[in-house]
């Protein structure tokens, strides 16, 4: 196997083929095609007939259909293994339908599976190709040796002559000429004939037993989407962990320190004024640090978002905003924690930009879920002119949204109003119960 040339490295010249094990392994493969057609093809036909004809029998026919699907995939896998052994041809296997636990759904998926019918088509088309391959093997390896020995036995025939189609060989010179042509055919044509037949066989196997290029690209895209989603979910889980650690660790210690300083300030009443001033200053700094740390943890992932969802969390953000903010949230069922966190981040960052740059008198936040799409709209009546290409804040929002295949748009003419619209796919309600 290690010395077998790969499919792309098959020699192209007769002399290269003679020195390569590919020539003999390909011959074996072509001869075995007939056995595969007779054995595997009939077995595939029998399994499909049993499965399809047994469908009306409900409890018996439905499982038979699923088993027939699996049986065809098993035979297809054996054919891919045979191609690997004899041609060193690597074919990525088709993926059978996933079991759902419902016999009816599994049977329906089995019959509508394109991979099943592609493999059935392989065994159907292999029949004429196997007959052609067998004839080619006979022509390549049996006929030339027989004709090369013609000078030794042609005189033994009746009338001391041999009939080769329209040609009659009745002299030694003619027999030697036929033997010479047969030798040239054996040395130069037979290897190329086997190579061509094997290439047609490989094309059929690749087309019917392997994944298409489009299918492989689609699978790769799915893998990348899944991988990216795992990264996003991991980052969001890490953010929640940091929020918990800060809230339960550093923030609690600062609260304890502030309480201790408060008691010290009360007990230091009446003593040196400089000492009282230092304690009061330390107490004020501790309270300020607590406030900043609370704002930091709230920005990472506020507990109210996990506990009560977007409505309560966005309402709390609006209550802290320096301008009136009207909030409308209709999200049912709740999306995943990752999508909720992105929506919260979009709204908080957008309202921060409004407060800093828009010079607006009021703002509105609207969050609605339509099927599997979460639509977020933030509107303000400020001066307008916001540009995502210029503002780092808006660019950060766009990058955050693009991480989950979301859409980001800003309409902000000079003079306002500014309308920021975000749409993110939220999928089914998959939020773990323990995280709610």
Structure description:
This protein has 436 residues and is an alpha+beta fold. The chain has three domains: 7-211, no CATH class; 213-301; 305-436, Heat Shock Protein 90. It is 65% helix and 9% strand. It is built from 14 helices and seven strands. The chain has helices spanning 14-18, 21-53, 61-87, 103-111, 114-141, 143-148, 150-153, 172-209, 213-267, 273-300, 303-308, 310-320, 337-358, 392-402, and strands spanning 162-164, 167-169, 325-330, 363-370, 373-380, 407-411, 418-425. The protein has a five-stranded mixed β-sheet with strand order 3-4-5-7-6, covered by helices on one side. Strand 4 (363-370) and strand 5 form a beta hairpin. Helix 3 (61-87) crosses helix 4, helix 3 crosses helix 8 and helix 13 runs antiparallel to helix 14 (392-402). The chain is elongated and about 140 Å long. The two termini are 56 Å apart. 28% of the residues are buried. Residues 432-436 have low confidence and may be disordered. It comes from Kribbella ginsengisoli. It catalyses: ATP + protein L-histidine = ADP + protein N-phospho-L-histidine. Residues 238-305 form the Signal transduction histidine kinase subgroup 3 dimerisation and phosphoacceptor domain. Its EC number is 2.7.13.3. This is histidine kinase.
């Amino acid at each position: 196997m290690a010395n077998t040339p790969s499919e792309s490295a098959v020699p192209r010249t007769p002399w290269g083929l003679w020195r390569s094990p590919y020539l003999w392994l390909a011959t074996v493969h072509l001869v075995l095609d007939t056995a595969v057609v007779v054995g595997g093809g009939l077995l595939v036909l029998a399994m499909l007939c049993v499965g399809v004809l047994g469908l009306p029998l409900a409890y018996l026919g439905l499982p038979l259909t699923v088993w027939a699907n699996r049986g065809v995939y098993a035979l297809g896998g054996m054919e891919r293994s045979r191609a690997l052994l004899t041609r060193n041809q690597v074919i990525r296997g088709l993926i059978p339908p996933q079991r759902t636990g419902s016999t009816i759904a599994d049977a329906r998926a089995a019959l509508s599976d394109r991979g099943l019918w592609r493999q059935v088509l392989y065994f159907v088309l292999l029949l004429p190709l196997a007959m052609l391959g067998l004839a080619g093997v006979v022509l390549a390896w049996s006929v030339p040796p027989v004709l090369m020995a013609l000078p030794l036995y042609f005189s033994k025939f009746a009338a001391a002559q041999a009939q080769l189609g329209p040609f009659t060989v009745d002299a030694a010179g003619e027999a030697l000429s036929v033997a010479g042509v047969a030798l040239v055919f054996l040395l130069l044509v037979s290897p190329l004939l086997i190579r061509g037949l094997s290439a047609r066989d490989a094309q059929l196997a690749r087309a019917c037993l392997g994944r298409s290029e489009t299918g492989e690209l689609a699978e790769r895209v799915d893998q990348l989407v899944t991988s990216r989603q795992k990264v996003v979910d991991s980052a969001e889980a890490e953010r929640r962990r940091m929020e918990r650690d800060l809230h339960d660790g550093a923030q609690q210690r600062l609260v304890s320190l502030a309480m201790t300083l408060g008691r010290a300030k009360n007990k230091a009443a009446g003593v040196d004024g400089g000492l009282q001033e230092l304690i009061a200053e330390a107490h004020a700094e501790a309270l300020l640090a607590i406030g900043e740390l609370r704002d930091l943890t709230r920005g990472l992932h506020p507990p109210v978002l996990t506990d009560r969802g977007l409505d309560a969390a966005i309402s709390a953000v609006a209550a802290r905003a320096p301008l009136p903010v009207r909030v409308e949230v209709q999200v049912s069922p709740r999306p995943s924690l990752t999508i909720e966190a992105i929506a919260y981040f979009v709204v908080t960052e957008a309202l921060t930009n409004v407060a800093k740059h828009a010079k607006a008198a009021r703002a509105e936040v609207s969050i609605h879920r339509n099927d599997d799409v979460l639509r977020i709209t933030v509107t303000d009546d400020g001066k307008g002119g916001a540009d995502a290409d210029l503002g780092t804040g808006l660019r950060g929002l766009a990058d955050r949204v693009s991480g989950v295949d979301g859409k980001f748009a800003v309409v902000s003419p000079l003079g306002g109003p500014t309308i920021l619209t975000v749409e993110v796919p939220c999928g089914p309600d998959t939020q773990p119960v323990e995280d709610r």
